[in-house]
Design a protein that fits this description.
By secondary structure, this protein is α+β, with helices and mostly antiparallel strands. Helix content is 26%, strand content 39%. The chain has helices spanning 16-23, 50-61, and strands at residues 3-11, 29-34, 41-47, 67-74. The chain is globular.
Length: 76
């Protein structure tokens, strides 16, 4: 069974496009869109288990240049 989550991402001003480009190369990110509101990007992440979601968010997304904060919401 796979686990999916929405990851809400805030980035530095002017970094949305480059962050989206980098995210497109990360395995496990099924889609990512620029949005308006309190976050700049919302991504759908999918993995085999919760540990996989954690590895993608903390080990890949949060380390991208320009990423300020993330908030992850598991899809039930």
């Amino acid at each position: 069974m796979t686990v999916s989550a929405y990851v809400h991402i805030s980035v530095q001003t002017g970094k949305t496009k480059s962050t989206l480009n980098r995210m497109s190369r990360i395995q496990g990110i099924k889609s990512a869109c620029s949005v308006m509101g309190p976050f700049d990007i919302i991504a759908v992440v999918q993995a085999n288990d919760l540990s996989g979601i954690e590895r993608i968010v903390t080990g890949k997304i949060q380390l991208l240049p320009g990423v300020k904060t993330t908030m992850t919401s598991l899809i039930v």
